[in-house]
Amino acid sequence: MRRGALVVFEGCDRSGKSTQCKKLVESMLEKGMKAELMRFPERSTVIGKLIDSYLKNSKDVQDNAIHLLFSANRWELKPEMERKLNEGVTLVVDRYAYSGVAFTAAKEGISLNWCKRPDVGLPLPDLVLFLKVSSEAAEKRGGFGEERYEKSEIQARVAKNFEKLQENDWEIINADQSMEDVQKQIQNVVSNLMNQDLPELGKLWT
Ligand code: FDM
Ligand code: MG
What values do phi and psi take at 111, rounded to 5? Predict the structure, then answer.
């Protein structure tokens, strides 16, 4: 049986990631394909609950330590991800290790290289869709929420880090377009992927 594809969405706040992830899963299911939505952080696990209270500012955690917890949250879901992929389910993932690196490396005194290390060897995405939104378009979409990191200075540093992490095979989607146009573009890219033979699942940053 053909394995499922690992499709990752990345991008800054208000780029439309969560909306587009849901739309993609819905449209794949409508076409009779097996697809499931995942997100990181996955806040339902024990580690995820800690991360949730950190993001909601109800708990402080040392910067390196919280980085390792975000990474551990991906590792703890690796067996489930591999199982589903092997069952032929395509996983559509809202944020992954790239967010992990981009956000922590936006802090003082933590390098991009240090940030990448704990995630080395995680399942390698078959496709990274980067939703690129201009600061003007993002601002029009309304104010920030209350969570840690939802501040424009932090978001600007995160955006720069995403640029440093960008690889040649990323699909950069102009997320200033209408939701429908973004969706169409994503569907084209994904249907190309689904028509290709997938190699054996790779390992991230190796
Ligand atoms: N975030 C997300 C990190 O700092 N590290 C990570 O590894 C991941 C996956 O958590 F601010 C940050 C990014 C964002 C927050 O917000 C999660 P959403 O709205 O649940 O995606
Ligand atoms: Mg958010």
Answer: -85, 160
